[in-house]
Amino acid sequence: MTEATSSENTELTAEEVSEQKAVRLAKRERLIAASTDLGGGAYPVSVPVTDTIPAVRARHEGLEADVATGELVGIAGRVVYSRNTGKLCFATLQSGDGSRIQAMVSLANVGEDSLAEWKELVDLGDHVFVSGEVITSRRGELSIMVATWAIASKAILPLPNLHNELSEETRVRSRYLDLIAREQSRRTVLDRAKVNQSLRRTFDALDFVEVETPMLQVMHGGASARPFVTHSNAFDTDLYLRIAPELYLKRAVVGGIDRVFEINRNFRNEGADSTHSPEFAMLEAYQAYGDYNAIADLTQKLIQDAALATSGSHVVTWADGTEFDLGGDWARISMYDSLSEAIGETVTPETSIERLQQLAEDAGVEVDHPLPGKYVEELWEHHVKSGLERPTFVMDFPLDTSPLVRQHRAIPGVVEKWDLYVRGFELATGYSELIDPVVQRERFVEQAKLAAKGDPEAMRLDEEFLRALEFGMPPTGGMGMGIDRLLMALTGLGIRETILFPLVK
């Protein structure tokens, strides 16, 4: 079987892929047999690269057609298009960032044997090295007039059709193919790196210290979530993959690191959908002598700085072309007031659970929980959440659902907590932290009672954390934000698109 050389091929059947693999394996054997370097003919240890494709393109931007620059370069790239004619072969080479340049292999420049070997041995997907003069073709395409070439890495499997959209399943399961084929996929990886760099720059300018806390924990806590459980052979004990770094970061604040943050992985043994992943990247930060208002200001600045880093503006452009404005000061609304307005009835922390149950039944909202606050939150999500397109801080949550948060300084029955909603999904959460160890113990005891009744998300009583609080923690504001969700807000993509290698079954 002879492999077609154009990337305009129709999709290959499994049988055709198998046949092409056999052909390519034979070429691999031929390359290795002809090489004096052990294995070097198909997979050399290095090639004499002197330049990169994007650098060459940048130096010769706007060059007129049919020009010979006299500049000699050695570059490498993946073959994503190939057309072999009689005395002149054309190939498009692509670098890792998606930049492309044309390679022209002519009989006059490389000789009959080398040209024949190019035609016989080079396939789509191969990494090749070419050296020669930078020119423009008669059509004005920037090119390398090849003097010498070599296989840098022989591809055994054929590339997918680069002119067809990859299926979502292929994009997620074979991200390496997605990165080769799609500019958006490459851009998302680069945007994620820019976001992390921006977050660290903003924190550094505000004198925050980055730390790392344990991912394997003897006690899971810091959030209401179902943990993953594993076992340590060395300690002969069960351990939990962390659901949040909160309780360790607060220990750091107790120890005198007044402004502290961490960017790392969290694991929650729960459902997966367009906004949730069992493994996700999380930012948490704590600021001593701040409260939930100060930490809201910080969160807005972090996100707006990240928008500037990726888009050069507070107005970001999503993958579908939609423009989304993250600029200005973001609205702050009360959970109870906004719910009351939405249903036309005043709901307060004093509203009975019987009335809340009736409101839930009337709205078709299923809630099976002993806490009134859970009904308030579920009713709010049903009636209000979907209407929050612009960035909005939803303030002042029920006390009974927020065991790590300080009670509101002026409103009984609620805590100083906000959730930030963007595009209708929760992006971040922030607190005025509970620092009274006596009250914190009482809250943990209540959570332990819920756990004893079978609530898998309830927190456990953490004596070591309580002991740290007893040494005195300053008034503190804290926040947590999913990095994957931040990318969703900046790009308009779903969560699996923002994670380079998401967990798939």
Automatic annotation (TrEMBL):
Name the chemical reaction catalysed here: tRNA(Lys) + L-lysine + ATP = L-lysyl-tRNA(Lys) + AMP + diphosphate
What sort of enzyme, by top EC class, is this? ligase
The UniProt keyword set, sorted, is: Aminoacyl-tRNA synthetase, ATP-binding, Cytoplasm, Ligase, Magnesium, Metal-binding, Nucleotide-binding, Protein biosynthesis
Quote one Gene Ontology molecular function term.
tRNA binding
Record's cofactor remark = Binds 3 Mg(2+) ions per subunit.
- GO CC, alphabetical: cytosol
EC number(s) reported in the record: 6.1.1.6
| Gene Ontology terms describing biological process | lysyl-tRNA aminoacylation
Identify the residues that bind Mg(2+) 2. Answer: 426
Q: Where is the Aminoacyl-transfer RNA synthetases class-II family profile domain?
A: 192-502
Its annotated compartments are:
Cytoplasm
Which residues make up the binding site for Mg(2+) 1?
419, 426
Give the matching InterPro entries: Aa-tRNA-synt_II (IPR004364), aa-tRNA-synth_II (IPR006195), aa-tRNA-synth_II/BPL/LPL (IPR045864), Lys-tRNA-ligase_II (IPR002313), Lys-tRNA-ligase_II_N (IPR044136), Lys-tRNA-synth_II_C (IPR018149), NA-bd_OB-fold (IPR012340), NA-bd_OB_tRNA (IPR004365)
Q: How does it assemble?
A: Homodimer.
Q: Which family does it belong to?
A: Belongs to the class-II aminoacyl-tRNA synthetase family.
What this protein is called in its record is: Lysine--tRNA ligase
Q: Which organism is it from?
A: Agromyces atrinae
